[in-house]
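User: My instructor asked us to take a sequence, write out its structure as tokens, and then describe one feature of it. I'm not sure where to start. Here is the sequence I was given:
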Amino acid sequence: MSQTTLFDALYRRRKNELMHVLVERLLPMYSDREIGLLRIDAIDPQILAQRSGRGFVNRDLLETLLGNLLECAAPGSHNAVDPGHERGSFSEEIGQVADQLYAMVAQSLLAAGESEGVEELALGASFSLLWDLPRLKTRARWNRFAALRDPAVWDAYLLSNCKIDRDDLLHIDFGGELETAIRLRSVDHYRDFLRNLECDFIFDYQMQLVMSTYPGWRILFYHDVANSLTCGETVADLSGLNRQPVPLLPRAISELAGRYYQADLHPETQIGDANFLDHPHRGMTTGQTGIIGSGCHIYPCTLGGLSDKVQQRHPIIGDFVSIGTDAGIYGSVNVGDRSVIGANAEIHGRVGVGPQCRIGASVFIGTIKDGDRLPGRVVLGEGVRVGAGTIIENASEIDLLIPDQAEIPARSYVVNDGCGQPRFVRE
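Assistant: Let's start with the prediction itself. The structure tokens for your sequence are:
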């Protein structure tokens, strides 16, 4: 790499080779309308080309790059370019994004002290991410779709322009139809359901409302970009480029999303798609080893860690899980599919929540460590219902097992009887 610029002759030659196959891959995923809506905000190449040595990437440039990547995932969703701006061809617009991403990655490698092979490493990371745009674009659409479970998408404007009144809405199972569409991976399933309501523009309006005003899908897209930059798998179709995890930049992206939206998603958290982050600006946190499935509805909450060891130390959340406002789930907790965690609930330690459980508001479930003695687990079977205000704790070395379909009344206090069975201290 040149000592004065990031964009030397070798970079330009390799970029031209890669752009040909990249554009062939990307073009089919855009409709003519989307290409017409695509707006890429340019950055002066002379600014991008300046090496910063041991400094770090310019935050303003990073914001521009993320906005452009968001445009690539959902054309027309972010940038409003000066009317006098002359748009280039699709290849030229994607080439602009490639230059910006390459520069950000290269600056990150330089800031981490890399000196050899920076150009090839930056090419591998940046073009691998762009190669992944079809998947990221699909994920972004499903995350927008998942937000339709919010009743507020039936706003005053929509109701004033369709034939459905508020009383009718109470008797329609939108949530069930949305879940079925997600499970089947068929947006058309839900569109057909809406057409039967005799108001064809409902879906397009609601999707536009989500794209224009809802922050959750944007947060998840930023996370997808950051997460992609932590990957090390080589893309075989990209001329054998070596793809290595990028230093610094993924964390910078997650911090930027936190600054914008108060959602601190660690870039290495594994997150599925079709998830709805509801009111995330009130604060949401995930950790490095956390896993979140697909189809979840998550209010502001903390999915945090307890251990300081390099191990699975954050929660694993299944599919179609609902987590209420200000819930805190800490440590290697495993929450099964289709479970509901109520508002202000706290679950921590060695806890397993089976599928289809319902945990009420302000419930505490946890394992209590006494000195160096490791407590047994708390295991809730399938379909357990825990009433609001209940405390379930295990200080015994024996696992505490709550049987399938058990119902624990509100404000109960449950401990281990010493043989692994629940004992009600207070009910």
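For the description part of your assignment, you could build on this observation: The chain has three domains: 9-134, 151-213, 287-426. Try explaining in your own words what that tells you about the chain.
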